[in-house]
């Protein structure tokens, strides 16, 4: 592709408006995530506890903004003031849970629909990460770690509110902590936040901002589609294993085990000789 045409395409992507189509895709997949988390009892639960079902879905949809606002000292419920987005979230929630014969859920699970919505949601995620980094940079211009944290939370806030979201539905799962088992989306949002901070605050990245943003979008979309079509759920795992082995004590623990196994054998030989 011609470099100028590629840059023009990148500029078009960065100018995409999220409302309403990308908001619909985001809300649809959030409602699907809640329904799948409920498992086989999702339909019965939605009939018996519609308020809890709606609240948990809204919490997933608006999680990034709520968590980021709470950390930045801003009103936690401020994301809910966006009435059109709230209506979109409510409508998609209703379609997923309450349409006759479960038509809405079946259409949302239809592979072409799911792939399209997933690709749109990843574009939405990249936008949220960038907006989080930019917002934090205005409040704390020199606090790079805060920019990274806010960008990560904006990108995958639902992962960090899973404990509360399930609690709203009456399920207490204290082990469902994103900090203990980070998902791919948290890791990807973290990497994207770091890249956006480097692009925004340093001279380490010489490429135009539009190309950096477009690269993040491609990264998100590619691995999301790979997880759906190819089953590649977390490409960071090999690098994490290597890093932990080299710098987090993995090699030394293995070496200690080997030495520990060898030591008793030497002792038993010595005791036999003395006898």
UniProtKB/TrEMBL annotation:
Protein name: Trimeric intracellular cation channel type B
Lineage: superkingdom: Eukaryota
A Pfam family it matches: TRIC
Keywords in alphabetical order: Ion channel, Ion transport, Membrane, Potassium, Potassium channel, Potassium transport, Transmembrane, Transmembrane helix, Transport
Family: Belongs to the TMEM38 family.
Membrane topology, record value: Multi-pass membrane protein
Cross-referenced PANTHER family: GH25683P, TRIMERIC INTRACELLULAR CATION CHANNEL
Spans through the membrane: 51-72, 84-101, 210-230
Cellular compartments annotated: Endomembrane system
GO MF, one example: identical protein binding
Lineage: Eukaryota, Metazoa, Ecdysozoa, Arthropoda, Hexapoda
GO cellular component: endomembrane system; membrane
